Amino acid sequence: MEDYREFVGNTLEEAKEKARDYFNCNHIEYELMPPKFLTVITGKRDIRIKAKKKEFTPEHAETRQKIKQLLESIIKESGFSLSVSETVEDEAVRYVLAGEDVNVFTDSKGRLLDSLQHIVIKATVRGDLGMNIIVDAGDFKKEREDFIKSYVNKISSTVRRSNRPYITKPMNPAERRMVHMLVQAEGDLKSESQGEGLYKKIKISRVTNNGNGSSQEG
Question: Which pLDDT band holds residue 209 (cuts at 50, 70, 90)?
């Protein structure tokens, strides 16, 4: 598309930051582009993306309002002392729970939080709106996302060094999506979800000689 432009960085975040600076906008939408041949051969894994300024439609606004209202209704009817705030990010709209009962949603590795997010999405989102919905409690998922970035970096180094696949622990859909994106950005690695249900493992391995470097979510 004509309104997309290409940006290159040493990391995905660096490429995204260049796009934000260019468009003078905090919210962009982007697609990863295949690495150039010499990038893989030399081990220099520059990340290429095409990006444009993120535009929100009336349908986006309506869905976001429904999500916030549903979250507030569930919290009120359940008797929790919590507030809900909304933050728009590049890839997602994040709804953050805050208050004295926030720890209820971060116990058991946040599984109650994952269930709440799953219910809200199923009840309000129809089709593909082009935005990821995240329901967080304080900085619980933010901190988890930072951990996943570091985790994928370590796994990538391990897979390259050993030339053997690595299988992660079970992850929820949002975490798996993040891992697939990070692995795809590496250029010489691929990922594939394994298992059934909400929580699945991910197999990360080297790209084969036929050039199959796609990431698969299921």
Answer: low
